[in-house]
RNA sequence: GCCUACAUAGCUCAGUGGUAGAGCACUUCCUUGGUAAGGAAGAGGUCACCAGUUCAAGUCUGGUUGUAGGCUCCA
């Protein structure tokens, strides 16, 4: 009896097998097809390889190629396959790490040679060859000392460094396929022959252990799938995503441009973009007015002493443009609006009866972003923030904080933004006194109250240590660009430090002077990033209220230009953004251009319309929807604009 | 900032050391049309910039600037 063990299957049934059977044996006993589609197994909740023997009673779950976990394992195994190919082609290479990431994998190599595109092709061919060898992937286990000896022998210094960092009592595993051995926890695909549909995508540099003080390694990214169709679909998806890229659409739709003589990261808003900025500001102003904010305006330039007081020069200087000397005094362009707003708060005596004070401004700030991190409109050096600072008592904090969170969701509702993640960024102990103001207790206390507010507001969030602002924790809304870069869109930050540095106070009901809390918030981010995001979110197909050109009049021929101009004037007088296509072109050509420009409403006017005083309405994504009286059309479009309807954006 | 690649007409892109090209857009003319491209002609370039190699450089080399993909950092 001793050599029989009981294996519990996911459906609860129990299978008795010989001790030492592997998940592969168990899969085969159920069916050959199951074995074929299995890539690993979970035994009592722990992922193991298909051929690892099981020696005692356990529950089993086979990981088949359909699951996301299986895809991760495949990606990781493909990274090993690539590393093996690179090592065969470039024997001097030292391998480092090669994990799977979302739908992709990468591997970092230390090599005195830079890979180019034709090298990627060569490596891919070598990978296919190794795949055909169908090498069995074996798990090896070492003690720490054995592992160090083994990888020292292989001359893999980086692996030795990793092992040295692993705690003493752990068994160390590695995987061997043919001549290639890689330090790895596993599990892995059982043989290289199962890795068939992959593509190497790009090369880049990457610092060893992500630290810019370390050596720059050579990284190769790639992707891999279980079947050809899925690989093709993924590559197609990457191509499609590029078409939504705001840099491409922003140029095509004449929203913004950059000019070498103006400077990197300093966008120029073209008329279409300026119109959109204006619409955003109108939205923000009315929302904030209803939420009890007041508008202020402050200069772009300020004496250094203000930023000494605020702590910016201590904690934020590397992100600021260098000082300029004006009559012997140092001035800076502002990186944030808060110090100015603090001065406005401080411009008069405040009572608890005045609080909360909510000061709003779409102030333009300038930040010295490192050249390599500029990215279209999403990451720029001059930016106009949807900024406001709320000064409140500790008692008011939770309500104010949640009101800001509510404002986010109202905005997100308007734009139909559904894919985002709330992130609570807190301080790290190591950063105290450097990256963060040195107030350990206040940090803990503030972070606690923010967490409580979030829980009370039933807001789901993830936490990120070490990403707080220098003056306090923040709640960010993370979104992803068309090509998958992550960005912080909205932000909501709590400041427990700076108001006291500015000596800000309010008089409480007992006549005592107290320091207010400050909430920094930017639910619409900056105009630059928000519009960059919206371009991609809508793929340039903006809802009517936001579209730079809302309506284009298309006369069938020159004979109807007079009527078309009358129509245009009426739309113009109704404050609808209208243009007329008076080129000597056929209707089809005018429609085509309007479609390319993604103008939501096309109005065709000819003989019939002129006689009947109507318009033939063609809407993007809908086509010809029929003829309507002029006045009715204006009314309907007006109401669509006022309601901010998203007619096509789903 | 670091690694790598790229930079040719307004846009998209050909052009591997020997007279600078295409399509679209633009201008003019013809055409006056009915729901995604009517026709013809014309204009448009210091091949990003600065050096160098060469009889000769868009093409080769170096530097600068800008852009792209990453790394690091962030609204």
Written overview of the protein:
There is one protein chain. With 650 residues, the chain is α+β, with helices and mostly antiparallel strands. It has four domains: 61 residues, Beta-grasp domain (Ubiquitin-like (UB roll)), CATH 3.10.20.30; 168 residues, Threonyl-tRNA Synthetase, Chain A, domain 2, CATH 3.30.980; 283 residues, BirA Bifunctional Protein, domain 2 (2-Layer Sandwich), CATH 3.30.930; 99 residues, Rossmann fold (3-Layer(aba) Sandwich), CATH 3.40.50.800. 35% of the residues lie in helices and 26% in strands. It contains 20 helices and 35 strands. The strands form nine sheets. The protein has an eight-stranded mixed β-sheet, sandwiched between helices. A hairpin with an 8-residue loop joins β12 and β13. α3 crosses α4, α5 packs antiparallel against α6 and α13 crosses α14. It is globular, with a radius of gyration of 31 Å. The termini are far apart. The mean pLDDT is 91. The structure holds one RNA strand of 75 nucleotides.
């Amino acid at each position: 009896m001793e050599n029989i063990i009981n294996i519990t299957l996911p459906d609860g049934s129990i299978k008795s097998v010989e001790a030492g059977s592997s998940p592969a044996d168990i899969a085969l006993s159920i069916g050959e097809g199951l074995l074929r589609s299995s890539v690993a197994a979970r035994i009592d909740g722990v992922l193991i390889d298909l051929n690892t023997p099981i020696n005692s009673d356990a529950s089993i779950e086979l990981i088949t190629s359909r699951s996301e976990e299986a895809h991760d394992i495949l990606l990781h195994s493909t990274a090993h396959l690539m590393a093996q190919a690179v090592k065969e082609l470039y024997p001097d290479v030292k391998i480092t790490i090669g994990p799977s990431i979302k739908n992709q994998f990468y591997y970092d190599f230390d090599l005195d040679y830079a890979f180019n595109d034709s090298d990627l092709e060569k490596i891919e061919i070598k990978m296919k060859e190794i795949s055909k060898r169908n090498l069995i992937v074996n798990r090896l286990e070492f003690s720490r000392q054995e592992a160090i000896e083994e990888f020292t022998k292989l001359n893999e210094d980086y692996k030795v460094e990793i092992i040295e960092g692993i705690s003493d009592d752990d068994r160390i595993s590695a995987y061997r396929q043919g001549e290639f051995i890689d330090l790895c926890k596993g599990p892995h695909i059982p043989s290289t022959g199962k890795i068939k549909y992959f593509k190497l995508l790009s090369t880049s540099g990457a610092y060893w252990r992500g630290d810019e003080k370390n050596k720059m390694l050579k990284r190769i990214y790639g992707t891999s799938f279980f079947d050809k169709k899925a690989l093709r679909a993924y590559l197609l998806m990457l191509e499609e995503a590029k078409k939504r890229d705001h840099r491409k659409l922003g140029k095509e739709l004449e929203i913004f441009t950059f000019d070498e003589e103006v400077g990197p990261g300093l966008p120029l808003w073209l008329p279409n973009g300026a119109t959109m900025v204006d619409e955003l500001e109108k939205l923000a102003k009315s929302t904030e007015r209803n939420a009890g904010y007041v508008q202020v305006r402050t200069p772009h330039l300020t004496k250094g002493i203000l930023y000494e007081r605020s702590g910016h020069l201590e904690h934020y200087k590397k992100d600021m443009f260098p000082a300029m000397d004006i009559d012997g005094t140092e001035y800076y362009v502002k990186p944030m609006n808060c110090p100015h707003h603090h001065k406005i708060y401080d411009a008069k005596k405040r009572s608890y009866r005045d609080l909360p004070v909510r000061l709003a401004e779409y102030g333009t700030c300038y930040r010295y972003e490192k050249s390599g991190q500029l990215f279209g409109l999403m990451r720029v050096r001059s930016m106009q923030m949807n900024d406001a600072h709320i000064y409140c008592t500790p008692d008011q904090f939770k309500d104010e904080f949640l009101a800001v969170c509510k404002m986010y969701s109202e905005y997100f509702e308007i734009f139909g933004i559904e894919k985002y993640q709330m992130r609570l960024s807190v301080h790290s102990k190591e950063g105290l006194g450097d990256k963060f103001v040195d107030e350990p207790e206040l940090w803990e206390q503030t972070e606690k109250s923010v967490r409580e507010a979030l829980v009370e507001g039933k807001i789901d969030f993830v936490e990120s240590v070490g990403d707080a602002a220098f003056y306090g924790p923040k709640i960010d809304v993370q979104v992803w660009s068309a090509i998958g870069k992550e960005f912080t869109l909205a932000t909501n930050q709590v400041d427990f430090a700076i108001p006291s540095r500015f000596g800000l106070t309010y008089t409480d009901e007992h006549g005592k002077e107290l320091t207010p809390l400050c909430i920094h918030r930017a639910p619409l981010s900056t105009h630059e990033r928000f519009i960059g995001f919206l371009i991609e979110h809508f793929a340039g197909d903006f809802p009517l209220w936001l579209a730079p050109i809302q309506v284009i009049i298309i006369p069938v021929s020159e004979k109807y230009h007079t009527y078309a101009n009358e129509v245009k004037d009426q739309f113009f007088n109704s404050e609808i953004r209208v243009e007329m296509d008076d080129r000597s072109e056929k209707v089809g050509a005018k429609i085509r251009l309007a479609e390319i420009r993604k103008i939501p409403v096309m109005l065709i006017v000819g003989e019939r319309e002129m006689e009947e005083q109507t318009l033939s309405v063609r809407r993007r994504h809908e086509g010809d929807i029929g003829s309507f009286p002029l006045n009715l059309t204006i009314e309907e479009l007006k109401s669509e604009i006022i309601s901010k309807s998203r007619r096509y954006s789903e």
